[in-house]
Amino acid sequence: MLSFVPNGGAKSCNYGCLGYGSCVQACPFDAIFVENGVAVVDKEKCKACGKCVEVCPKKLITLIPYDAQYAVACSSKDKGPVTMKDCKAGCIGCQLCKKNCASGAVEITDFNATIDYDKCVGCGVCMEKCPRKSIVTH
User: Fold this and answer.
1) Helix (H/G/I), strand (E/B), else coil: 90
2) What is the pLDDT of residues 59-112, one digit of tens each?
């Protein structure tokens, strides 16, 4: 496992990283830094202790498997039109990723895609089908 921070999004997004650095200060492994106002996790240094997850003021950071090939780079729970207004790459819950995932690894909850890594086979169809490019290579 390792920590994952979505891409940050526009500052107008209610679900974007604020860049305060609480996670940086909490990380005992020096695995997080802030770049362009967004927290970035160094995959090689992260030990998945979860301290960053605990202190993130917006609860954006999640733990994902170290070998995860794909991740959803959006945390928005807003409906499509609101997300589209705030972010060029925000998930709008269109369900194309879910409908095209043969392994059933993608779900849509609160207008946002989530990946069940126990089911994901790493085929990349979800990323290919996403019209907003919200699913990224990790």
Assistant:
1) coil
2) 999 999 999 999 999 999 999 999 998 888 899 999 999 999 999 999 999 999
In percent, the amount of the chain with pLDDT more than 70 equals 92
**Are 55 and 112 found together in one domain?**
no
34 three-class SS: strand
* pTM metric for this prediction: 0.87
User: How do beta strands 106-109 and 62-64 pair?
Assistant: unpaired
Same domain, 52 and 86: no
- Tell me the CA distances in angstroms from 132 to 37, 40, 53, 107, one per residue in order: 22, 21, 26, 16
Structural domain range at position 42: 1-67
Check whether residue 129 and residue 88 sit in a common domain. yes
Q: What is the CATH number of the domain that holds 27?
A: 3.30.70.20
Q: Helices H, strands E: what count in the chain? A: 5, 8
* Residue 104 in tokens: 């059933």
Give per-residue burial for 59-72: e unless 16+ CB within 10 Å, then b: ebbbebbeebebbb
Q: Calculate Rg over the CA atoms of the chain.
A: 14
